[in-house]
Amino acid sequence: MWKEIETELLVAKEAGSLIYRRPNFVKLVAGLYSLSLFGLENGRIMRASYLPVRFVDDLLDGDAKFNGDPLLYVLELKENIKSNSLPKTRVEKQLKYAIDNLESRARNDDDPRGDFVKSIDSIIFDYHRAKERRVLTFSEIQDYYKMAFDPVINITLMASGSSIRSKEVPTLSYGQGRVYSARDIRTDWQRGIINIPKEVLDKCNLTSYSSLNEIQNNQILKKWTTISLQQTKPDLINTQSFLKNLGEKQTFLICNSLISPMLKFIGSDKI
Q1: DSSP structure class, residue 211
Q2: Which of 239, 218, 94 is nearest to 164 (CA)?
Q3: Angle at 118 between CA 207 and CA 55, to 5 degrees
């Protein structure tokens, strides 16, 4: 019982820190706590899984304060996860609680520890490519979406007790990748995260050092983005239908909390 109480206290501090540095995440944090309506343990595992990884992401983005070399800390954290030797810091205690509980309920083809490592690897990848303003090919970006989102979706589905995994709902990964890349183009471009394929940039006569104004006003790029999202829309709707028919209320609600905003964005005039 003490581990559960300690984890909830640590999670509460982490949630408070997230809201302090990102006030727009209030709804997301509230949603994490509302998951306990489907089982206190499932909700706790979800919070202990998501919030530390969010901290790591914010740390390498420069949005979270840290005394020391953030990359060195994240690399060490990743190695500690791999070797099952997490020390006793706030973030690591939460991760240990989440991983221990996910491994205790894992199926033969599940690898929660590996999914956490992959998730952190994708954050490190973003850190390096942002510094270089690295341009990826279409194929590389598709692989990146899978690398970035599949592990998180797997962890989420495991924590919720779902019968499915990311391989059954691949649209959630490439859908999030495409929609968030279009939605966050201004922020990503300024940070050096280039999610426009090299083939498209070349066609538009643009480079990773083109101005944001050039990117946002290029008609060829606008057309490509619109087509990409319109092609994704039916896949999201089909996934939504699949999840409805699955008969798992919590799985549907969690996944639909991702799908509905994506469909709303695709149907908006913000593209």
Answers
A1: -
A2: 239
A3: 80
Rounded distance between C-alpha atoms, residue 242 and residue 245, angstroms? 5
Measured in whole angstroms, the distance separating CA 17 from the mean position of its chain's CA atoms is: 18
pTM of the model: 0.93
Rounded CA gap, 97 and 90, in Å? 11
> Around Cβ 16, how many Cβ atoms within 10 Å?
11
Alpha-carbon span 173 to 153, nearest angstrom: 8
Report pLDDT digits (tens) over 76-97: 999 999 999 987 789 999 999 9
Q: How far is CA 50 from CA 4, 10, 32, 160, 161, in A?
A: 16, 13, 9, 13, 16
The conformation of residue 11, written as its DSSP 8-state character, comes to H
CA 8/CA 128 separation, integer angstroms? 33
Structure confidence by residue, pLDDT tens digits, 135-191: 999 999 999 999 999 999 999 999 999 999 999 999 999 999 999 999 999 999 999
Residues 6+ apart with CB under 8 A from 130: 191, 192, 193
Tell the residue number behind the tokens 């033969």, with chain if given.
Answer: 108
Structure tokens at 205: 């006569």
Angle at 85 between CA 81 and CA 89, to 5 degrees: 85
DSSP one-letter code for 55? H
